[in-house]
C-alpha cells in the first residue's frame, strides 16, 4: 500500500513538472521561432499604434471595408464564440438581423450573395481577416462612400490579399485593418 502511495505521488509530481514547466517552456520556445517571436504584431499609422494584426476591429462606416462580426464585441480579453449552434432560434434571429443590415448598406446584392463570413462571427470572435469575395461584395459601397473608382478599390483588395500558408494550405485572406489603412492613404492621396 505504501509503495502505491509513493508511486502515485511520484507520478503526480512528474506530471506537475511536465505539464506546468516543461510543456509551457516548449510552447514558448516554439513561439519564439515563429514570425514575430510569439508576440502580437502591432499595426501603426502615422507612427501611432492603431491595433494588432491578429485581432479584429469594428468598422461600421460606409467608407471602410467591414470585418466579420464579433461574438465578444471585439474584446480581446473575452475572446470566444457565442456557443450557439446553427439551429438555435436566437442565433438565427441574430444572423437574419445581420443579413438585413448588410443588405441595407449593400442594396445591389442579392440575399444569396451575402458572404456568410460577413454575418457570422468566427470561433474566437476576433478574426481580423475576410476573404477576397467578402471584400469584393463591399467594393461598390466603399466606392460610393469615398468617391474612389471601383477599379482602384479592386486593385487595393488584390494588393492586400495574402496567400495561404505555404501557398497551399487554407484560403486567401485580407487583413481588414491593413486594408482600411491603405484605403485611408488612397483617400488622402486623392485630395
From TrEMBL:
Q: Looking at the record's lineage, which domain of life comes first?
A: Bacteria
Q: Name one Pfam family in it.
A: KdpC
Its main subcellular localisation, reduced to a broad class, is membrane
Q: How is this protein situated with respect to the membrane?
A: Single-pass membrane protein
Q: Where in the cell is it found?
A: Cell inner membrane
Residue intervals passing through the bilayer: 6-26
Q: Name one GO cellular component term.
A: plasma membrane
Key words, A-Z = ATP-binding, Cell inner membrane, Cell membrane, Ion transport, Membrane, Nucleotide-binding, Potassium, Potassium transport, Transmembrane, Transmembrane helix, Transport
**InterPro entries hit by this protein:** KdpC
Keyword Transmembrane helix appears in the UniProt entry: yes
- State any single GO MF term: P-type potassium transmembrane transporter activity
Any idea what job this protein has?
Part of the high-affinity ATP-driven potassium transport (or Kdp) system, which catalyzes the hydrolysis of ATP coupled with the electrogenic transport of potassium into the cytoplasm. This subunit acts as a catalytic chaperone that increases the ATP-binding affinity of the ATP-hydrolyzing subunit KdpB by the formation of a transient KdpB/KdpC/ATP ternary complex.
The entry sums up its family as follows:
Belongs to the KdpC family.
Q: How does it assemble?
A: The system is composed of three essential subunits: KdpA, KdpB and KdpC.
Show the NCBIfam families listed in the entry: kdpC, PRK00315.1
- What's the protein here called? Potassium-transporting ATPase KdpC subunit
Amino acid at each position: 500500500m505504501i509503495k502505491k502511495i509513493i508511486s502515485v505521488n511520484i507520478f503526480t509530481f512528474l506530471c506537475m513538472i511536465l505539464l506546468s514547466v516543461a510543456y509551457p517552456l516548449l510552447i514558448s520556445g516554439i513561439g519564439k521561432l515563429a514570425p514575430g517571436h510569439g508576440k502580437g504584431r502591432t499595426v501603426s499609422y502615422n507612427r501611432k499604434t492603431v491595433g494588432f494584426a491578429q485581432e479584429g476591429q469594428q468598422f461600421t462606416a460606409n467608407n471602410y471595408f467591414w470585418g466579420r462580426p464579433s461574438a465578444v464585441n471585439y474584446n480581446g480579453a473575452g475572446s470566444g464564440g457565442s456557443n450557439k449552434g446553427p439551429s438555435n432560434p436566437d442565433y438565427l434571429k441574430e444572423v437574419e438581423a445581420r443579413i438585413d443590415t448588410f443588405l441595407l448598406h449593400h442594396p445591389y446584392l442579392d440575399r444569396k450573395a451575402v458572404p456568410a463570413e460577413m454575418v457570422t462571427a468566427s470561433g474566437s470572435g476576433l478574426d481580423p481577416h475576410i476573404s477576397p469575395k467578402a471584400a469584393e461584395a463591399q467594393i461598390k459601397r466603399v466606392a460610393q462612400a469615398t468617391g474612389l473608382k471601383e477599379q482602384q478599390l479592386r486593385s487595393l483588395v488584390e494588393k492586400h490579399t495574402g496567400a495561404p500558408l505555404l501557398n497551399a494550405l487554407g484560403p486567401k485572406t485580407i487583413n481588414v485593418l491593413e486594408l482600411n489603412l491603405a484605403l485611408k492613404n488612397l483617400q488622402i492621396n486623392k485630395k
